[in-house]
Design a protein that fits this description.
The protein is built from 3 helices and 4 strands, in the order E-E-H-E-H-E-H. With 100 residues, the chain is an alpha/beta fold. It has a single domain, classed as 2-Layer Sandwich (Transcription Regulator spoIIAA). Helix 1 runs parallel beside helix 2 and helix 2 crosses helix 3.
């Protein structure tokens, strides 16, 4: 199960993700991010990953794709922070390769 909550603020919109980030819910995260980006009106978009117990390879791939698209992520918990740190390094590595 995956729960995605939307929290609107003056300066940013947050998507709070909880549960298991596995197929078929990976597509839900991608869709929610695309919908949330549609009417930001100058605000930032941050995806907060809280209380996530499992992230499949498909989940990691979508997070990496969203990071490369400019969406910021914030992790809560040791597991989530570790996964996000690794994916951010991969995204930066891909960016460096593209610049060469």
């Amino acid at each position: 199960m995956l729960k995605i909550s939307l929290v609107d603020g003056r300066t940013q919109r947050r998507l709070i993700v909880e549960g298991k980030l596995i197929a078929p819910w990976v597509a839900e995260l991608k869709s929610a991010c695309e919908d949330a980006r549609a009417d930001l009106c100058g605000r930032g978009l941050v995806v907060e990953i809280k209380h996530v117990t499992t992230i499949s390879q498909e989940g990691e791939n979508v997070i990496l794709e969203l990071i490369n698209a400019g969406i910021r992520f914030r992790g809560h918990g040791v597991f989530t922070k570790r996964v996000l740190k690794q994916l951010t390094r991969r995204a930066v590595g891909n960016f460096r390769e593209m610049k060469k």
